[in-house]
Amino acid sequence: MTYTKRVDGRKIEELRPMEAKAGVVKNANGSASFKIGKTWAIAGVYGPREVVPRFMANPRHGILRCHYTMMPFSGSGERIKPGRSRRAQEISMVMEQALAPVIDLSAFPNSVVDIYVELPQTDAGTRCAAISAACMALADAGIPMKDMVSSVAVGQVDGMVVADLNYNEESYPAIVSDIPVAMLHNSKEISLLQMDGEISKEDLLKALELAKVATEKVYQLQVKALKEKYALNNEEN
Fold it and tell me: Does pTM surpass 0.85?
């Protein structure tokens, strides 16, 4: 094992610097910004509103749709091609599945809640930042929710289990695993678990324990940002 110290000097459980703010998109029903390291996600919620096209409507409950987009010059490498790539479609579906367990749209039949997430800047962990921002935006919009979802990537770099891999760690010239995790705060149920790379069973279990600690840190920041927004609104009123 040659990777004994993280490239940016962080401890194994330490996350990159984070920032979060609710109510950042003026015309959205709810919105939020979530930044971790150089990865920045902005989410806007629109709805519940009429489903278009109509054949997608469900007469029993509303539906959730996520739309994930990286801006053309957001990446660390080459310019990102505008439009809905296969990767963006996959992450949009993953977001829907990660958020679905906590929202209740039974009171909104034949309607849709749309979440649009734009990433102006990226450096690893984009889907996790998008999920964390989207959950905050849903809460800001007043969508009925039974819990919060917080998301962060864990994994291992050349045998070292770490939290919140950055781009340099993801591309480290050794065996690397990147494991995006989304977790419900109260129950600690996992609503997203993906993996890119290789990892032993023992290290996977260590990584998932690390994810519990890491997502708790994200959750605390999400709640703090939402409370700050509503405290400010109360002062203005």
Answer: yes
